[in-house]
Automatic annotation (TrEMBL):
Record lineage: Bacteria, Pseudomonadati, Pseudomonadota, Alphaproteobacteria, Hyphomicrobiales
Name assigned to this protein: TetR family transcriptional regulator
Gene3D superfamilies: Tetracycline Repressor, domain 2
Gene Ontology molecular functions: DNA binding
Start and end residues of each HTH tetR-type domain: 23-83
Keyword Ribonucleoprotein in record: no
Stored Pfam families: TetR_C_29, TetR_N
PROSITE patterns for this protein: HTH_TETR_2
Keywords, alphabetical: DNA-binding
InterPro entries linked: Homeodomain-like_sf, HTH-type_TetR-like_transc_reg, HTH_TetR, NicS_C, Tet_transcr_reg_TetR-rel_C_sf
Location of the DNA-binding region in this protein: 46-65
Amino acid sequence: MPGVKKQPVRAAKPVPIKRRDRERTRQEILDIAFEEFAENGLSGGNTDAIAARANITKRLIFYYFNSKEELFTAVLEMAYAEMRAAEEDLHLEALEPEAAIRRLAEFTFDFHQAHPQFVRLVSIENIHRGRHMAISRRLKEMTQPSISQIAKVLERGAACGAIRPGIDPVELHMTLNALSFFAVANRHTFEAQFAFDMSSPKARAQRRAEIADLLWRCVRGDRTAAV
């Protein structure tokens, strides 16, 4: 219309692209890398495959982790952190010595059964002679509360005569994990040799009870030996 001054058309402000949540992205990379490494090992684990599944560029992986080795170490730390956090929730200090030992044995067996990828990852790290765990201060630090928890149960039990004195908590931890780890790590070879289904509910329940009994018999003191 004559005399009407046209207002300049203002360009619409660009909608800001929402930044990725850095912690969420890092965690997503770790979760996918955990599955990739557990399935294919460190050497066979493919960062291209991890990037594709996470819908990110491979370059972004190396923004968070300096190398594939560093990513693998972070995956190990995450896997062990889950187990250690679950151990803290056992509250063994509230249980009598025998109940505490049995609870610890049952938990350890159940955790390995429920997390076969964790078992595979630990086996892979052993192939690499534990070199990633050796350089991780975080992994060493998170082990101490677990050993301390066992030591306190042993001390309480020894004080009341329920547990024999002088048991090394690290040795007991190793024995328990060896028993529980074998049932998952060696399941396929054992089944092939003996035609025994180790994954059936009946076999698992029997093995779980046996491990709890074995661990208690291993530590019980003179006061309870005849019971």
